[in-house]
Specification:
There is one protein chain. By secondary structure, the protein is α/β, with parallel strands linked by helices. The protein has two domains: 129 residues, HAD superfamily/HAD-like (Rossmann fold); 99 residues, HAD superfamily/HAD-like (Rossmann fold). Helices cover 36% and strands 18% of the residues. The protein contains ten helices and 15 strands. Strands 5-4-1-13-14-15 form a six-stranded parallel beta sheet, sandwiched between helices. Helix 5 links the parallel strand 8 and strand 9. The longest helix has 13 residues. The chain is elongated.
């Protein structure tokens, strides 16, 4: 164990555990060390985890299958994604809209399911908003059309602001925020972001758990989205500051510069140990 301060709540008082996915539960296609043991521990304790992810490319069903392939079996309804909740956010905030959706097929389908009308970006139609998720088919032509639509008065909505996420072997994967940055710069307009650190996904997760924020804990690796966002939503937070080693001196200095996390541990194994788990059983 390290010398981190314990959570302000005793573990038995925590009623809901929320986890990020990329960089927390898995890296690319590999489960994080300790992830299965920790999730099993929570399940046996009667506190199954809920997952709050800025993933705006895959559906909850896709993510469930991916996790199952890593040996991490979780129910689909425990996965809160930017993919499926961006359309819900727009419906709650603005009502039914005429949208152009830039992103994956599941991202587009989620907006249709939420009740919006979706038209192709190529059509010269009057639209209320352009919605951008992680789009691996993004092109200069798409950029040009989106910028023109935004300059013509359409709202610019972004599923999340992440510029990158960690891939397998430390690979850097460009994210939605990198695409949106180009649109913002070219159009001179600012996007409205839905995912973490904004409170919407956290609120949806808490509603699904029927738990108030003071009795919930958000666990994540991204300080700016998971920790600051969780704090702004009123949750307790656990920051995973490193991948495998105990906190080094440089990590400790960084931790003092970023003091909002209630508990700072290097990885899930250390969190599991601090909760009373036996790392040798993982």
């Amino acid at each position: 164990m390290n010398d981190s301060e314990p959570l302000p709540l005793r573990e038995r008082d925590v009623r809901a555990w929320l986890f990020d996915l990329d960089g927390t539960l898995y890296y690319g296609g590999e489960a994080a060390p300790g992830a299965k043991a920790l999730l099993d521990y929570l399940r046996v304790s009667g506190k199954p985890a809920t997952f709050v992810t800025n993933n705006s490319r895959h559906s909850s069903a896709d993510i469930m299958k991916r996790l199952d392939g890593m040996g991490l079996s979780v129910p689909r309804d425990s996965i809160i994604t930017a993919t499926e909740y961006t359309g819900r956010y727009l419906l709650e905030r603005y009502g039914r809209l005429q949208l152009c959706v830039c992103g994956s097929k599941p991202f587009e389908e989620a907006h249709l399911k939420a009740g919006h009308a979706v038209c192709p970006l190529e059509e010269e139609a009057d639209i209320d908003a352009v919605v951008v998720g992680l789009d691996d088919a993004f092109t200069y032509r798409k950029l040009e059309r989106i910028v023109q639509a935004v300059c013509n008065g359409a709202r610019l909505i972004a599923a999340n602001a992440d510029l990158r996420h960690p891939g397998t072997g430390g690979r850097v994967v460009p994210e939605t925020g990198a695409l949106v940055a180009a649109i913002e710069q070219a159009s001179g307009r600012k996007a409205e972001y839905v995912g973490k650190p904004n409170p919407y996904l956290f609120r949806c997760a808490l509603e699904a758990c029927a738990v108030s924020p003071e009795y919930a804990v958000m666990v994540g690796d991204n300080y700016d989205t998971d920790i600051l966002g969780g704090k702004q939503a009123g949750l307790n937070t656990v920051w995973l500051s490193g991948l495998s080693a105990p906190l080094e001196e440089s990590d400790a200095v960084l931790a003092m510069q970023r003091p909002l996390a209630d508990l700072i541990v290097p990885n899930l194994i250390e969190l599991y140990c601090q909760m009373g788990g036996n790392p040798h059983e993982r």
